[in-house]
Amino acid sequence: MIENLGINYEEAVAVILFGIGFTMMLFQRNLIKKLIGMNIMDTGTFLLLASMGYISGRKAPIIENGIQKTEAYINPVPAGLVLTGIVVSVSVTAIMLALTIRLYKRYHTLYLDDIYALSIHEQEDR
Amino acid sequence: MAFVTNLPLFTIVLSLFSGVLCFLLKGRAARRYTIVYECLLLVMNGLVLAYTIRNGTFTYVMGEFPAPWGNEIRAGILEALMAFVFLLIMVCAVVSGKRYVKVDVDESKINLYYALINLMTAALMALIWTNDIFTGYVFLEILTLTSCGILIVREIGRTTLAAVRYMILNLLGSGLFLLGVVLFYDITGNLLMMSMQEQIAQLAGAPGTMTLELTLCLGILTMGLGIKSGLFPFHYWMPDTYGWATPTSAAILSSLVSKAYIFLLFKIYYRVIGIRIFESLPLGNVLFVLGMLGMVFGSISAIRANNINHMVAFSSAAQIGYIYMGIGLGGLAGYTAAMFQIIAHALTKSLLFLTTPRLAEVSGDSLKFRDLQGSGIRNQSAGYCFLFGALSMIGIPVFAGFSSKLLFALAAVDSGSGKKLVLVMLALAISSLLNAMYFVRTAIRIFTEPQEKGRYKAPGRKQARGLKADYLVPMALLIAANLFLGLFSWVLVDLIQKGLAMFG
User: Fold this and answer.
1) Do B191 and A52 touch (CB under 8 A)?
2) In percent, how much of chain B has pLDDT > 90?
3) Which residue of A has its CA nearest to B157?
4) In this complex, do B157 and A81 lie within 8 Å of one another by their Cβ atoms?
5) B158: chain A residues, CB-CB within 8 Å
6) What is the nearest CA distance from B499 to chain A, expressed in angstroms?
7) Distance (Å, rounded) from C-alpha B71 to C-alpha B192?
8) How far apart are CA B202 and CA B61, in angstroms?
9) Which among B249, B266, B237, B261 is positioned nearest to B137, based on CA atoms?
10) A25 and B138 in contact by Cβ < 8 A?
C-alpha cells in the first residue's frame, strides 16, 4: 500500500488536491474562496489526467528523425482532454465571477449566508 | 446509409448555428425563428424515430474514423423517443412562456435568451445522442452554463442568488463527473462507450472481480450526476432555482435539464459498465434507498411550502426520487418504469410550471397560497390546466402519473424480492398520499372564492382573450400527451422495451 503510494505519488497528490478543492467549495462561505476551491479541484483532475498520460522516457507525438515506432511517443489524447478541460474550467470561472460581481453590487457582501438573509427581506415578487 | 442517419448530427450542429444566429437577430425575430426552428427539429426527430422503429439502431461515425478512435453518435428507439419528447416540451415551453419572457427579460437581451435556448437544445440533443463519454462531459458543461444563463436573465436579486447556489452545486457535480470519466479512461484506455464496455467486460469477466474499483469510480460519477439532477440529499437547491425563474426557464430546467443528466447516467450504466455488471454492484441498492427517501422527504417539504412554485419544485424532487428508485430496482421492468417516469414527469411538470404564473397573474402577481385563493375561478383555463397536472401528479387513473406508478408497482413484483416489494409499495403509498395532500389542498384553494370578495378583479374580456391564443394550444398538446400516456401506456411501454433491447 505505502510503496504503491510512493510510486504513484502524482496521483495521490492529485486526489488530495481534488479533496481540498471539493471541501473548500462545499464549506467555505465566502464566494471568492469557493471559486478558488473550484479551480483547485479542477487542477487536481487535470494533474491526474496528465500524470496518467505521461510515460517517462517517451516524447510528444511529433515525428522526429524519421522514428515512426509508437513506442517512442506518448498518447496525445490525455493532453487533449486536459486542454479541453482547462477551456471549460476557464469559462465556468468567468461566468461565476460575473455572477459574484452582480451579487456584490447588490448586497455589498461576499458571504452567502449574509446574502441569503438579505434576500429574504426583499419584497417578494412573482 | 439512408439520409435520415445524418439527422441526429444535424440537430446538434444546426442548434449551435441557430444559437449564433439568434445573437445577430432582433428580439422578436429571434423568438419567431426559434419557434419555427424547434418545430423543424421536432419533424426531424420524428423522422429519426420512425426510421429507428423500422430499421433498429444505427451508429453514425463522424469523419469516418473507425471505432476505437473516432467520435460517434448512436440512435435507437429510446434515444429518438427521448429527443422527440424533449423537443415537444421545449416548443410548448417557448411558445407558452413568451409573454413572460417579454416582461421578465430586459428588451435588449431577449434575443440572447433565445440564443441560450438554442444552445441548450444543442446540449440536450448531444447528451441524448452521443456515444462518447468525453463529448458527454463537454456538452454537460454547456448545459450547465446555459441553464445558469436562462436562470439569471430575470434580473432580480433572488434569481442571481439562486443561480449562484445552483452553479456551485452543479460545478461540484461536474468536477466529480469529470473525475469519474478520467478514472474510467485510466481503467479502459477508451472514450467511446462501446469500447469501454468491451474492456470492462474483459477486466471484470468473472463476477466479483474489480467490484471495489468499479464501485468507487462509478460511485464518484453517480454522485456527480446525482447532485446535478437533484437526487435526495442534494435537492434543496430546487425551490429557489425553479421558483423565481421566468416560467419558460422553470419548465425547461425542471422537466428537461435534470432529466437529461439522468438519461446520461443511465446510458453510462447501460453502455459503459454493461447492465449485467452494474446489477452485480451494490450501487443500485444505494440509488434505490436514496430514491425512496427523496420521494417521501420531497413531498414533506412540498407540504410545508407556502408558495405554489416552491411546492411544485419540491414535488419535482419527489418525482426524481421515483426515477432513481426505478433504476435501483433493476430488471427490464424497473428500467422501463424509470424511462416512462422521465417522460410522464417531464410532460406534467412543464404543464404545472407554465400554469402557475397565470394563476399568479390574476392574484396580484403573487405566488403565495393565501393570495391564490379563488384564482382558478378568475382564470378558468389556467385553473383547469393546473387541476389536470395535479391529478396526474397524484396518480389518478387515465393520467400519466397513474401509469408510471402502476409500472413501478409491477416492476417491484417482477424483481422477485419480497423486501423490495414491500418497500416499493410502502413508498408508493406514502408518496401518493402526501402528493394528494398538497395537490388537492391547492386545487381546492384555487377553486374556492376568497372570503373578502372583490379583492382581485376578474380580468377583462379583452385581456382574457389575449391570453388564450399562445397558451391553449401548447397546454392542449401537453394535456393530450399526458392523457395518451395514461390511456395507451402500453404503446410507449412497448417502444421503451424495444429501445432498451437495442440500447446496450
Assistant:
1) no
2) 58
3) A119
4) no
5) 119, 122
6) 31
7) 7
8) 24
9) B261
10) no
Whether residues B164 and A41 touch (CB distance < 8 A) is answered with no
Chain A: closest CA distance from residue B181 (Å): 10
C-alpha B428, offset from chain centre: 20
Query: Please, what's the b/e burial string for B185-207 (b: 16 or more CB within 10 A of its CB; e: otherwise)?
Result: bebbebbbbbbbbeebeeebeee
Within 10 angstroms of residue B321's Cβ, the number of other Cβ atoms is 28
Contact B258, B159 (CB under 8 A): no
Which residues, 6+ apart, have CB-to-CB distance to A85 below 8 Å? A42, A45, A46, A49, B178
Give the percent of chain B with pLDDT over 70. Answer: 96
Cell output for A100: 459574484
Q: Is B40 exposed, middle or buried (0-12, 13-18, 19+ CB in 10 A)?
A: middle
For the question of an ipTM over 0.85, the answer is: yes
- Residues B402-413 as b/e (b if ≥16 CB within 10 A, e otherwise) read bbbbbbbbebbe
For chain B, domain boundaries = 282-504
User: Is B293 a residue whose pLDDT tops 60?
Assistant: yes
pLDDT tens track for B362-386: 888 788 888 888 888 888 888 999 9
Give the single-character DSSP code of B74.
E
Please report residues of A whose CB lies closer than 8 A to that of B145: 91-92, 95
Q: Say which residue the cell 396526474 belongs to.
A: B392
d(CA B425, CA A42): 42
- Give the model's pLDDT for residue B418: 83
* Sequence-separated (6 or more) residues with CB below 8 Å from residue B243: B162, B250, B307, B309, B310, B313, B367
Among positive and negative, which fits the CA dihedral B416, B420, B424, B430?
positive
| CATH class of the domain whose range is A2-56+72-121 | mainly alpha
Task: Kindly state whether A115 is in contact with chain B, defined as any CB-CB distance less than 8 angstroms.
Answer: yes
Q: Residues of A with CB below 8 A from B178's CB?
A: 42, 45, 85
Distance CA B404, CA A9 (A): 50
Write out chain B residues lying below 8 Å of A77, CB-based. Answer: 191
* Contact A17/B at CB under 8 A: no
User: CB distance from A103 to chain B under 8 Å?
Assistant: yes
Which of A4, A2, A1, A14 has the alpha carbon at shortest distance from A54?
A14
| Number of C-beta neighbours around residue A123 at 10 A | 5
Q: Which residue of B has its CA nearest to A111?
A: B161
d(CA B395, CA B430): 12
Q: Which helix (H) or strand (E) holds B73?
A: strand B71-75
Where are the domains positioned within chain A? 2-56+72-121
Quick check: B227 and B172 in contact, CB under 8 A? yes
The answer for residues whose C-beta is within 8 angstroms of residue B59's C-beta and 6 or more apart is B72, B73, B74, B131
State the Cα–Cα distance between residues B205 and B199, nearest whole angstrom.
9
Q: Does A20 touch chain B (CB under 8 A)?
A: no
DSSP letter, residue B75:
E
Question: pLDDT by residue (tens digit) across B425-462?
Answer: 999 999 999 999 999 999 998 888 877 665 565 554 44
The C-alpha cell that represents B91 in the structure block: 416548443
Residue B295: predicted pLDDT: 92
Q: Report the chain A residue with the minimal C-alpha distance to residue B367.
A: A126
3-state secondary structure at position B11? helix
